[in-house]
């Protein structure tokens, strides 16, 4: 390679034909190199260069596409929240649109009203069952008072009209008779057997002591109660055979100045065929004729508090009557009930926390236990 020079810079070449100055490999053909050449070689000197149109990316379009993707991403992220991001407005600021959340409280309000109504109905139902007959007699008196001819009503000292419970009576009780006083507790009393026929005044010891008369023979159906210890119920006419029912916390006093046939009461009734007492405790339902003897008992609370419910059935197993009373130490109906009639097939249910004792009544009017309710 001695004597040869580099075709590019003119310097010496080494033994492999590579320039010691610029490093060009002169061993290759000059065709592989474009030295001092351009795209204009071979063209006229007066030719004009024409610039090719270059492609410029649409940056605005790219930005719109990017913003669109970001907006969709934000919508997906905030779609479950109460606020959603809208696309940019002309000012470039983000606006929030409030999405109203459904008011769950308003949806629950009708349900609360329904539950409250059910509770009120249940409470009123229990009160009605407990004082069923008291309410029925009170309503009966009110209805009879509405339809009563005003010409047959008598006026009291306050010029108010009262219903005449004795308007259908065909026999008057004689004004002459014996003076008699009784102090009785809650229970049933048959006039002419345990208390003589006469016209009575009832004096209570407690508020809301009640007096009820059931006398179908003389068409007398009366229910009265007292308001206050000084209150009195006057003109209570008891005809022979009438059923007097008292409900009081302790006892009430009865006074009459014309008691009839007092001595005859000693032989008017009969001895009770029952001799055995029955103790009943806690949430039990007994059937007369199977679990206890049918008959007439005196009921007494031994311990606890609760209700005693009796349902009377006919021979065909149809319900014909019922009786219920609450027993407690301070209850308005007291702790005892005299002359409780329990016919065959009647069911007796006692509350869970209550213990009672049934003792046969000493003297009774009849052993026709169904007849006591079917009058």
From TrEMBL:
Superkingdom to which the source organism belongs: Bacteria
Span list, region Disordered: 49-74, 82-101
Bias (Basic and acidic residues): 49-70
Record-given protein name: Uncharacterized protein
């Amino acid at each position: 390679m001695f004597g040869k020079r580099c075709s590019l810079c003119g310097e010496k070449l080494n033994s492999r034909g590579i320039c010691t100055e610029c490093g060009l490999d002169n061993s290759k053909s000059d065709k592989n190199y474009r030295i001092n050449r351009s795209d204009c070689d071979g063209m006229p000197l007066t030719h004009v260069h024409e610039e090719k149109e270059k492609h410029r990316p649409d940056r605005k379009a790219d930005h719109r596409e990017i913003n669109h993707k970001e907006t969709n991403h934000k919508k997906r992220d905030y779609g479950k929240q109460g606020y959603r991001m809208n696309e940019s407005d002309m000012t470039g600021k983000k606006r929030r649109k409030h999405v109203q959340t459904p008011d769950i409280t308003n949806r629950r309000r009708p349900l609360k009203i329904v539950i409250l109504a059910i509770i009120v109905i249940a409470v009123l139902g229990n009160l009605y069952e407990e004082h069923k007959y008291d309410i029925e007699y009170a309503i009966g008196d009110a209805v009879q008072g509405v339809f009563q001819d005003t010409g047959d009503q008598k006026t009291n000292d306050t010029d108010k009209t009262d219903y005449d419970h004795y308007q259908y009576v065909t026999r008057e009780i004689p004004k002459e008779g014996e003076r008699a006083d009784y102090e009785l507790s809650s229970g049933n009393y048959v006039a002419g057997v345990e208390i003589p026929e006469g016209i009575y005044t009832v004096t209570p010891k407690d508020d809301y002591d009640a007096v009820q008369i059931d006398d179908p023979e003389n068409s007398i159906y009366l229910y009265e109660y007292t308001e206050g210890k000084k209150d009195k119920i006057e003109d209570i006419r008891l005809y022979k055979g009438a059923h007097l029912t008292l409900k009081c916390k302790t006892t009430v006093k009865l006074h009459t100045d014309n008691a009839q046939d007092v001595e005859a009461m000693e032989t008017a009734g009969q001895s009770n065929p029952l001799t055995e007492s029955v103790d009943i405790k806690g949430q039990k339902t007994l059937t007369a004729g199977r679990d206890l003897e049918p008959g007439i008992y005196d009921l007494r609370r031994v311990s606890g508090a609760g209700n005693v419910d009796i349902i009377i059935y006919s021979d065909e197993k149809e319900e014909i009557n019922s009786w219920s009373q609450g027993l407690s130490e301070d209850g308005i109906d007291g702790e005892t009930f005299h002359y409780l009639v329990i016919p065959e097939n009647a069911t007796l249910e006692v509350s869970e926390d209550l213990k009672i004792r049934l003792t046969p009544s000493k003297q009774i009017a009849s052993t026709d236990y169904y007849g006591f309710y079917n009058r």
